[in-house]
Amino acid sequence: MKNIGKVMGLYPTPVVIVGVYVGNRVNWINIAHIGIIGLDKIMLSIAKNHFSNQGIEQYKSCSLNIIDRTEIEKADYVGIVSGEKIDKSQVFAHQITEELHVPIISSAKVAMECSLFDNYKTDHHDNFVLEVINTFVDENVLNDDGKIDYLKVDPLMFEMPNRKYLSVGEELGKCWSIGLNKEE
Ligand SMILES: Cc1cc2nc3c(=O)[nH]c(=O)nc-3n(C[C@H](O)[C@H](O)[C@H](O)COP(=O)(O)O)c2cc1C
Hints:
Elements: E1 13-14, E2 16-22, E3 25-31, E4 34-37, E5 41-47, H1 52-59, E6 61-66, H2 72-78, E7 94-96, E8 103-105, E9 110-119, E10 125-137, H3 150-153, E11 157-159, E12 164-166
Antiparallel strand pairs: 1-11, 2-3, 2-6, 4-5, 5-10, 6-9, 7-8, 9-10, 11-12
This protein binds flavin mononucleotide.
Flavin mononucleotide binds at residues 15, 27, 29-33, 45-47, 50-52, 76, 79-84, 158.
């Protein structure tokens, strides 16, 4: 194995489009540095100089939207321009959730409305810890058991070293199951 130094290698990650009110305007931001904490919390690592952070702090809430490849250009766009200079509110058709009043993308395959639980600040980043309050799905991505089928979701994925979008590919086996076939 070759040591290539201090390179972040934890990819691919799903692209998450964060929806948030900043003041009285909706803003969207592309965030891929994310992590699951426990079973109901998600960490978003957002550079402190981004515009969206102000809204997450102000309203203590935001939405996380999983989109598919059909939204790739819009997703990339909201990851290039800042709401500080450009009104991104109409980039995605959206609706406002009843409980937390956050914008969710109408075409999202999965959208979670989340409340702010904590902010673990590091030198240049707000690392927002969010609690999932409600999850909305496109019913077409549910399987017969009523669970989200991620092959149907076809989430847009991201990797940083080569700055590329990827897809998830195919099912390889059942977790907590295929390991039982291991030969000694
Ligand atoms: C694919 C992709 C992934 C990104 N992931 C992150 C991220 O994890 N954290 C971050 O701070 N910025 C990330 N960005 C950059 C922000 O989306 C971008 O700076 C955005 O314009 C900030 O918008 P705002 O100022 O309106 O909040 C990403 C951009 C792209 C294109």
